[in-house]
UniProtKB/TrEMBL annotation:
Protein's UniProt keywords contain Phosphoprotein: yes
Pathway the protein takes part in: Protein modification; protein ubiquitination
Organism: Prunella himalayana
EC id: 2.3.2.26
Summary of the function given for this chain in its UniProt record: E3 ubiquitin-protein ligase which accepts ubiquitin from an E2 ubiquitin-conjugating enzyme in the form of a thioester and then directly transfers the ubiquitin to targeted substrates.
Identification of the protein by name: Probable E3 ubiquitin-protein ligase HECTD2
Any one GO MF annotation of this record: ubiquitin protein ligase activity
Biological-process GO terms, alphabetical: protein polyubiquitination
Positions annotated as active site in the UniProt record: 698
UniProt keywords, alphabetically: Ligase, Phosphoprotein, Transferase, Ubl conjugation pathway
Gene that this sequence comes from: Hectd2
Amino acid sequence: GLEEGAKNQFSTFSNFITTINQKKEGIGNRNSPTQLVIPNIKNGRDLPPLCLDVRQKQRMSMDALPQELKAPIPPEPSLPIRTKTVKDFQDDMEKSKASGDWKAVHNFYSTTFDSFLEINAAFKKDTNSPFNTIEDSGIDAKFVNVVYDALLNTPQDVQKSVLKGIINGLLQEWTGPRTKDDLRAYCILLQNPQFSNTSTYVIYAHLLRQIAALTEADHHFLVHWSKKISQKRFKQVVDRLLQFISLRLFPAKPEEFPPMVKCTWWIPSATKVLALFNAANSLISPPIISYTDFYNSTLDHIDLMEEYHNWQCYGNSHRFSFCQYPFIISIAAKKVIIQRDSEQQMISIARQSLVDKVSRRQKPDMNMLFLNVKVRRTHLVSDSLDELARKKADLKKKLKVTFVGEAGLDMGGLTKEWFLLLIRQIFHPDYGMFTYHKDSQCHWFSSFKCDNYSEFRLVGALMGLAVYNSITLDIRFPPCCYKKLLSPPIVPCDHNTLVGICGVTLDDLFQIMPELAHGLSELLSYEGNVEEDFYSTFQVFQEEFGVIKSYNLKPNGDKIPVTNRNRKEYVQLYVDFLLNRSIYKQFAAFYYGFHSVCASYALLLLRPEEVEILVCGSPELDMSALQRSTQYEGYQKTDLTIRYFWDVVLGFSLDLQKKLLHFATGSDRVPVGGMADLNFKISKSETSTNWLPVAHTCFNQLCLPPYKNKKELKQKLIIGISNAEGFGLE
């Protein structure tokens, strides 16, 4: 950005902003539809929505429009002739730096940015070509990058001239639809590095407002043009927009900005422009930047539940909410929303149970406020499934687990232990519900047909209970599973509607069955005669209980040969069969089970990757981070026993580190917020050093006797964490 000392030099721009209002008053009687302050829009909350209500799961697809504009293309005005090349500009810069005479450079910048036409004259690759397609913006990206890279190294009067020119362009009186030259100018101006400085935010805000108010067809072009921007520049624009939103929410110097009441449209405009870049990012595989780069952690500190309730109440109406644009909300913030939404549902269900009991003049019982699951360790799966099937009406109550014959009280630790052991048994190959694929190290649904799919429903409910009760599970499903789980994210009212069906590709199959996917990929790239050499038809063969069965991928598929011409269709149908059709009943039961517990609009905020993180946590263990966030009771972090402990733990293998985490917390997974979210505590145990360490998994607490040396501590700790199953009371 610009130097801090230069801030005062930009104060004169308040005069230019004043001209915006003067200009508006001067032309107010003309009812121009395109003046800087867009008419009929009182503030940013009234701007036209960039996309449809996400609660209907009908978000606007930026690539759904045809490649040509649906509206008539307005004629492009003739551009001035500008012949300066990248080399000419670089030569001028070198001469100016050497001589101190910046006149030529000043003239170039002041002329180039004086209007949208001049911007196109300078940066359009060919001024005689219309460039009216989404495939090519016609922008000379190299020239734009060179000019912007040099801009911040020029004198302040040069930089000021650029901002003056941008104001002139924004004040232009539009007489009709925007031309492609106008869109090109917007695309170029968004990349201006000057907008990283807060002193330019008033101008930046008006630029964002105009872009946000463009038509859907114009947004379509900007999205496709933006995906051609280099990764470095793309991320810079995204970071600039995120910073703009953060500083408007929490300004370091509030006096730098107009009062919030006068610029409520700033944040909605910036968020809508950011949505264009998010759409562009999603059009490319792999994406230009990670979806996490769109997170704005500043939003973690606002009233998220108010945002969520506004969104629930008003949807995508004129009332702005960040929940309309969930890509900007971090996974940590979404977890908070889901937790609080779950807590409110739990309280509501428990209150209703209490009211029902009292209305029938029955004595209230504390147990009625919980989902009480009582199981025997020797019959863990059957007891658990029976309990959940029997207590469907209580699934949305707070979960409490009791192991028969054990004195442990469930303050959270027994629940975690129950989930861990149950998942381990259900996913065992001998149980037959899921198939483990060694190549991808993940589980997938068994396609074997059966009479009753209720067990899959109960497994789905189990996974929903984990999310609902903020428990992380050691489940190894491929990403495709979570995509199917959100298809759709809200259970449809019509029970005839298909659920758990999503668009799948060869990439999805690679994540489950890489060897088979590789073979299909080879088929697609085969240069010989596919029909004669492969001799395949549109059929799939599967072994079920020792019997080979065939399934047609399309009607009469057994009579349709696979050829060079139709092999793409064959591969797509094959993948769809394996990941959708062949397991439809199993996955549908699983889907309904999950949503029977997690029926919440909050799921609409999540990407499939985020659902996976909520369910599974992170497998990445960072014991150094755990050491930094650990609290102590009876010990100081400098005590010899504590130093021995961390020397031993940091030297453990990954397997032993996971065992320690499971021993102390009841789970070997890291929650969404990282190790710091565990609130791990080490307490001094006043027992004999002959005793093993003890853990209170309900509180993520490890009780450690003051062992005399590192060898003894390591020996006792390994014995303790390697033989940790079962609970008792002290």
